[in-house]
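Why does residue order matter? Because the sequence determines the fold. Keep that principle in mind as you read this record.
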Amino acid sequence: MNTRIAGLLCVAALAAFAATAAARAADLDPKAVAFTLPDKIQWKDNPAGTNQSAILYGDPSKPEPYAMLIRWKAGNMSRPHFHPNDRFFYVVSGTWWVGTGTRFDPNATVPMPAGTYVVHYGKGIHYDGAKDGDVVIALHGMGPATSTPAEQK
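Structure:
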């Protein structure tokens, strides 16, 4: 299966999970289905305090598939950077703003409203974040999920 299609399916499944009503644990066979209700997802602040993330599976620091949720706080944007591998996103809520190139220009970003599917191609220089409101995005990728600064000043 094409990795882009697989990524799209995974991110779509994550988004569907996030939007699904709570299920009763007694009704599901734990050998068949695992789930985490929204109030049990463990969000962690990043060191700068600009966003929070919750790892759903895998380890982004290792060379393996992973999935996570990222909550960008309003008014925060990353600076131009790139990642070594393709990354697949689904905007769960809010509007995520995405720009490309080495010059940081928040006014040149394009709005990605809830429901939008986005691919950041490996080694493609981009920047992104939240402007007027918080944003939640679902991310699926192959680790290690490193970020290399690429801003031209």
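The chain has a mean pLDDT of 89.
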